[in-house]
Request: fold
Amino acid sequence: MGRKKGVVFDEGAPDDFDPENPYKDPVAMLEMREHLVREKWIDIEKAKILREKVKWCYRVEGVNHLQKCRHLVHQYLDATRGVGWGKDQRPPSLHGPKVEAGVAE
Reply:
């Protein structure tokens, strides 16, 4: 017996979920809920990784961190916009303005 060459993840939303009538199929509804939670955790972990990169950049660059780490800060701010457990019900306009990475403020 050998090892498997790769792992295949089922990362898509369930095919039989009906957003118009979510309670029609309870199994599909639970699978959809698990899918949304999984995607939310992935977004949160990506933001954590970017936060660690920003911290590292600030420590390494010292006084030049405003110029040298700007691109990482913009990536982190974009990654955290709308991420979190309490922001799902708020409209995107309340999450803050979207700032482009190349625009100086």
Q: What stands out?
A: Residues 24-92 form one domain. The two ends are 59 Å apart (CA to CA). Helices lie at 26-61, 65-68, 70-80. The chain has a mean pLDDT of 79.
